[in-house]
Give the backbone structure.
Amino acid sequence: MKLVIAVVQDKDSNRLSNALVKEGFRATKLASTGGFLKAGNTTFMIGIEDERIHEVFHVIKSNCKVREQLVTPVSPMGGTTDSYIPFPVEVQVGGAAVFVLPVERFEHF
Ligand code: 2BA
């Protein structure tokens, strides 16, 4: 068994959770905050048998979009503070940052 941890944009979270339920996957949604943008995102925990993991990836990929987002860095990106002029930069966010962890044991009481 594996635990899939997927960080997705809030805009995609309802669609993804509906799709997971429809395809028969169990998932838990956690409200989270990205360290870089300091904006809300959603973290899914999905416990899944090893042989179905590619199905979960497929559902995540089909329901999470890549989006461009403008962000003004709060600290210099490598330069010194005296030469620092803040200006917005565009970053690509998503579709999903996905981690796969081995599960030693799963009990459901
Ligand atoms: P954030 O940390 O808010 O990052 C949002 C987006 O900003 C990232 O999109 C990436 O395009 C950019 N970004 C992040 N750190 C950067 C940096 N040091 N310099 C330049 N650009 C940077 P994604 O890669 O799609 O990540 C979306 C969210 O997924 C992240 O939100 C974070 O909450 C989570 N995440 C991504 N990689 C992670 C990791 N290795 N560990 C834990 N969480 C991660």
Residues 66 and 72 are 19 Å apart (CA to CA). The mean pLDDT is 92.
